[in-house]
Specification:
This protein is α+β, with helices and mostly antiparallel strands. It has helices at residues 2-7, 13-21, 23-26, 30-36, 52-70, 73-84, 91-100, 128-144, 148-151, 156-176, 187-190, 193-199, 306-319, 327-330, 347-359, 401-406; strands at residues 9-10, 48-49, 109-113, 116-120, 222-227, 233-238, 249-250, 255-256, 286-291, 294-301, 334-337, 342-345, 363-366, 374-381, 418-424. Helix 8 crosses helix 12 and helix 8 (128-144) crosses helix 13 (306-319).
């Protein structure tokens, strides 16, 4: 990342479009304009964009760890910028966050779906909504007498059940999601099969019901997944919320402050009500599937509150319908907006089942290919091949990697005991590759 910041990266199609569209917002802050509008305008498509200030920031973090960010010169620059804009942040706020909960490992949350363990990040992330959708469909299908695999995606009832389960899960998401360090989020109940069974009666097989709790949070997420020669897999999602966050850049350090605080609510008594030193509802959602305790699929989507509902659809596509990691990227999806209670359907899907869903009482619209851009990576293990040996802790891996590969780490390069398969979405810029 530091190298890309220093030497530059090519500005591809979707990024060039968004950059150009949002250029006027970037002019409002002089530091942002200087950093992200070189020559006074958004970078041209396929041009090279460089951010040497960001490279400097990453170098400081490499040398000083997270304290360089939360307690060092970067923190002082953040606070100066924040207070110059009328904010009230203090150095102690950043330092306390780092000491109490910033950058710590958290335990994933998970549910069993047809013999596979589906994992998500815990609150204040929204991943539990994907798990609740799957729980509802898992429990209610046999209870209500439908089978998603037998119905298949050409049947409007297939989409009816998925959308109804989504509305129920997102109602709980909007009711309860909050910072667990400040509020009690009842995950044990929400992710139980017993609780899912209590929701089955709220699904009418012949009629859509309005979403109980309305609301929506937008975002400009980036998702990627990667696997290495030893079979380690990472599901990674990152976002400063809107495309350029708050449009406010920290001078000399090349990064924009996020606008995640917009995801708080002002509703009195709500678990996600804004409060000091509290994290807001966070949309970023990284998915992972394991089977019998072994890693199987790392996957995810971008797109604000699109993410959990899209990821639930991918799980169903792969497990119930037998799609591979690329096929689920290509398949049509829905994207239900909980605020307007409207189901956006990919263009082909709209023509196939749109009228029938409308007849069931659903409000439908064409999604125009925006239903959550996905990337996925699957590891197919070969039991006849010995698992590769991981290098011991402290073995150089990054700086001078070529020299290391020629030397003492050669014994850790036996063939991987399996095959990676990757998929990348056609809806926006993406890439699946191996090297």
């Amino acid at each position: 990342a530091r190298t890309y910041a220093a030497e530059g990266f090519p500005v591809h199609e979707r990024v060039a479009h968004d950059w150009r569209t949002l250029a006027e917002n970037l002019r409002k802050d002089p530091d942002t304009a200087r950093t992200f509008l070189p020559g006074g305008k958004a970078p041209e498509m396929y041009s090279t964009f460089r951010n040497p200030d960001l490279a400097r920031t990453l170098r400081l973090i490499q040398r000083g760890g997270r304290d360089a960010f939360y307690k060092g010169p970067i923190a002082r620059a953040v606070v100066r910028k924040h207070r110059a804009a009328g904010g009230v942040m203090e150095l102690d706020d950043l330092a306390r966050f780092a000491d109490s909960k910033g950058g710590k490992l958290v335990k994933p949350i998970s549910v069993d779906y047809h013999g596979y363990d589906i994992h998500q990040l815990p609150p204040p992330g929204q991943g539990f909504a994907a798990l609740e959708i799957l729980n509802i469909l898992d429990v209610c299908a046999p209870k209500m007498g439908f089978d998603l695999a037998k119905l298949g995606p050409r049947d409007p009832k297939y989409w009816h059940y998925l959308i109804e389960a989504k509305k129920l899960a997102y109602s709980d998401l909007l009711r309860y999601n909050a910072d667990p360090a400040s509020e009690d989020v009842p995950l044990k109940t929400l992710l139980s099969k017993r609780y899912a069974a209590t929701l089955c009666d709220r699904i009418d097989p012949d009629k859509a019901r309005p979403a109980e709790v309305r609301g929506n949070i937008t975002g400009g997420t980036v998702y990627l997944t990667v696997g290495d020669r030893w079979g380690n897999m990472v599901s990674f999602v990152d976002s400063i919320s809107a495309f350029f966050g708050s449009n406010t850049t920290v001078p000399g350090y090349g990064f924009i402050l996020n606008n995640r605080g917009a995801n708080f609510t002002l509703e009195e008594g709500h678990p996600n009500q804004v409060a000091p030193r509290k994290r807001p509802f966070i949309t970023i959602t990284a998915g992972f599937i394991t089977k019998d305790g072994r890693p199987l699929v790392a996957f995810g989507n971008k797109g604000g509150t699109t993410q959990p509902q899209a990821q639930a659809q991918h799980v169903i596509n792969m497990i119930d319908l037998g799609m591979n990691v690329q096929a689920t990227a290509d398949a049509a999806r829905f994207d239900h907006d909980q605020l307007s209670d409207t189901a956006g359907l990919d263009t082909g899907l709209m023509g196939l089942v749109g009228p029938q869903l409308s007849a069931l009482g659903h409000k439908v619209a064409v999604a125009r290919g925006q239903s959550g851009v996905y990337q996925g990576l699957l590891f197919e293990r070969d039991a006849s091949v010995r698992a590769p040996r991981m290098p011991p802790r402290g073995t150089p891996c990054c700086e001078g990697a070529l020299e290391t590969d020629r030397g003492r780490s050669k014994r850790f390069e036996q063939p991987l005991n399996g095959v990676y398969r990757a998929g990348s979405d056609l809806r926006q810029d993406g890439h699946a590759g191996g090297w």
